[in-house]
């Protein structure tokens, strides 16, 4: 040990904890930037190969016309946006898109539907698409809104590995963004998913006018769940003309990196994803996120309804950084 230095072993930070206090999470956000990124990078290496990125691809299997009023979303029927509503896709078309994603190097495929909740009448189609995507050897993820326990069990039986259901922001800010459901509703679906044995994908959005305390509040919620989310997406708001959040002030890039780094520190074994927003991020900012512990991106020219950097740009980014796509599923948190 160096004289006059307090010994801080990396493993102290690397072991998952569920007893984080909000004050501790807020304090992490206040850490000097280089120290925060260093600590997060250290923890990242404890659980993952920091040169490997999981490539995931999204498909909107049912677009628009959603009865919820999430203030950031192009698909809410409450707002006049450019997104055209469409019906639930046939399973065969979804499976064909997944096969193309796999051929393009994606290792995980996420199906999204603009619903408040799943209707039992749609379950046969949903289970068929999940089973077909799983049979391709892809990791499967779905995000269809609220689920009952029985529906979660049916999706698990079809081969669903992950269910995405974001808490989006801290509990104190939630009602400023969504009025048609509560934080408690979100937590109930997460419980149904967990009880069915499906891995949880849960994260949120920055850039909606929230405070740093709200960002810490979101990560505090995630870090104190009975199990940390196996997958933790951080979205940078894609401002959608026509929505209440269209003119939100963007968060500073350093703050986005802090969000990634704190996510890595409080949920050390989770796959932390840079989700929406890479379209407006520099390559250098994305590289800082990878250093700070992000280890997954969405690939393909579209997310659900918005643009994403194309494959050429992402192939060049990985090549220039000498990073490589994960070829097998990362170990679960
Ligand atoms: N309807 C389902 C739900 O809300 O859970 C699934 C689809 S929803 C589009 C999935 C997630 O995408 C949201 O929870 C939100 O975190 C993120 N998202 C949606 N619109 C976004 C936007 N404009 N910018 C950034 N993230 C967004
Ligand atoms: C997540 O947290 N972000 C992804 C995925 N999980 C489902 C969705 C991003 C959507 C961005 C806005 C859009 O394309 O409509
Ligand atoms: Fe509907 Fe999901 Fe969009 Fe909210 S985020 S309006 S629930 S599609």
Annotate the secondary structure layout.
Layout: H1 10-14, H2 22-29, H3 33-47, E1 52-62, H4 91-103, E2 108-113, H5 123-135, E3 139-143, H6 149-158, E4 162-164, H7 174-177, H8 183-195, E5 199-201, E6 204-206, H9 212-223, E7 231-236, H10 253-266, E8 271-274, H11 283-291, E9 296-299, H12 311-321, E10 324-325
Parallel strand pairs: 1-2, 1-9, 1-10, 2-3, 3-4, 4-5, 6-7, 7-8, 8-9
Instruction: State the helical fraction.
Output: 25-40%
Estimate the mean pLDDT confidence.
95
- Globular, elongated, flat, extended or rod-shaped: what is the shape? globular
Q: What is the strand tally?
A: 10
Instruction: Give the CATH level 1 class.
Output: Alpha Beta
CATH fold description: TIM Barrel
Q: CATH H level: which superfamily?
A: Aldolase class I
Runs with pLDDT <50, length 5+? 1-11
How far the N terminus sits from the C terminus, by CA atoms, comes to 31 Å
Major sheet summary line: 10 strands, parallel
Please describe what this structure looks like.
- This protein has 333 residues and is of the alpha/beta class.
- It has a single domain (24-322), classed as Aldolase class I (TIM Barrel).
- The protein is 38% helix and 14% strand.
- It contains twelve helices and ten strands.
- It has helices spanning 10-14, 22-29, 33-47, 91-103, 123-135, 149-158, 174-177, 183-195, 212-223, 253-266, 283-291, 311-321, and strands at 52-62, 108-113, 139-143, 162-164, 199-201, 204-206, 231-236, 271-274, 296-299, 324-325.
- Strands 1, 2, 3, 4, 5, 6, 7, 8, 9 and 10 form a ten-stranded parallel beta sheet that branches.
- Strand 2 (108-113), helix 5 and strand 3 form a beta-alpha-beta unit.
- Helix 3 (33-47) packs across helix 10 (253-266), helix 4 runs parallel beside helix 5 and helix 9 runs parallel beside helix 10.
- Mean pLDDT is 95; it is low at 1-11.
- It binds S-adenosylmethionine, 6-(5-methyl-2-OXO-imidazolidin-4-yl)-hexanoic acid and iron/sulfur cluster.
- 6-(5-methyl-2-OXO-imidazolidin-4-yl)-hexanoic acid binds at residues 58, 74, 110, 112, 143, 164, 166, 203, 233, 235, 238, 275-276, 303-306.
- Residues 72-73, 112, 114-115, 143, 145, 165-166, 168, 205, 235, 237-238, 240, 276, 304 line the site of S-adenosylmethionine.
């Amino acid at each position: 040990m160096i004289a006059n230095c307090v010994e801080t072993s990396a493993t102290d930070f690397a072991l998952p904890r569920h007893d984080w206090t909000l004050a501790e999470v807020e304090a992490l956000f206040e850490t000097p930037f280089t120290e925060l990124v260093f600590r997060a990078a250290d923890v990242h290496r404890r659980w993952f190969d920091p040169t490997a990125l999981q490539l995931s691809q999204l498909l909107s299997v049912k677009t628009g016309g959603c009865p919820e009023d999430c203030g950031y979303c192009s698909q809410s029927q409450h707002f006049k946006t450019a997104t055209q509503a469409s019906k639930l896709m046939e399973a065969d078309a979804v499976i064909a898109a997944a096969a193309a994603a796999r051929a393009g190097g994606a290792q995980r495929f996420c199906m999204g539907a603009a619903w408040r909740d799943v209707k039992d009448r749609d379950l046969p189609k949903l289970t068929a698409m999940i089973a077909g995507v799983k049979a391709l050897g892809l990791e499967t993820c779905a995000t269809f809104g609220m689920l009952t326990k029985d529906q979660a069990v049916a999706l698990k039986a079809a081969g669903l590995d992950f269910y995405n259901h974001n808490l989006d922001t801290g509990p104190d800010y939630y009602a400023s963004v969504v009025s048609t459901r509560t934080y408690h509703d979100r937590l109930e679906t997460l419980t149904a998913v967990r009880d069915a044995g499906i891995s949880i994908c849960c994260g949120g959005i920055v850039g909606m006018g929230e405070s740093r305390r709200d960002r810490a509040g979101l990560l505090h919620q995630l870090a104190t769940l009975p199990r940390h989310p196996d997958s933790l997406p951080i979205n940078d708001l894609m401002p959608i003309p026509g929505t209440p959040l269209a003119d939100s002030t963007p968060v500073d890039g350093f703050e986005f990196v802090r969000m990634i780094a704190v996510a890595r520190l409080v949920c050390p074994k989770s796959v932390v994803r840079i989700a929406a927003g890479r379209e407006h991020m520099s390559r250098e900012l994305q590289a800082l996120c990878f250093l700070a512990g992000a280890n997954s991106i969405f690939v393909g020219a579209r997310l659900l309804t918005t643009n994403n950097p194309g494959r050429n740009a992402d192939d060049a980014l990985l090549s220039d950084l000498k990073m490589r796509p994960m070829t097998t599923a990362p170990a679960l948190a």
